[in-house]
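Friendly challenge for the regulars: who can give me the structure tokens for this chain first? No prize, just bragging rights.
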Amino acid sequence: MEEKHYNLDYLNSISGGDQEFIKDMLETFITNVPEDLKKIRNLVAIENWQKAGEDAHKFASSLLFLGLDRLKLIATQIEESGLNKQNVKQIPELLTELENGCNQLILELKRDFNV
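First reply, four minutes later:
Bragging rights claimed.
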């Protein structure tokens, strides 16, 4: 059996194990993530580092409920670089890494939950 890249412990704890709630949350995640990442990508393209950092902060919180610590760390690096306008040249590479990880995760969730 393949190793899962996500963890549903938090969702199970806040939902009392309500599988319908969990599935709804996962569907929302799958729907919103590509659009959220696209917004950040567009902000990076126009070098609006402040707003990219703010959006990365919001995005990082959505990664918490699936126990995505590695991806959250990448989003936090984008956030800090953007907000502080430091090391901004690393942001596109970090964003690509974040996008790749999220795309892989979405495929995994779609497969595992048939959504």
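The domain at 9-113 is CATH 1.20.120 (Four Helix Bundle (Hemerythrin (Met), subunit A)). The two ends are 20 Å apart (CA to CA). Your move, everyone else.
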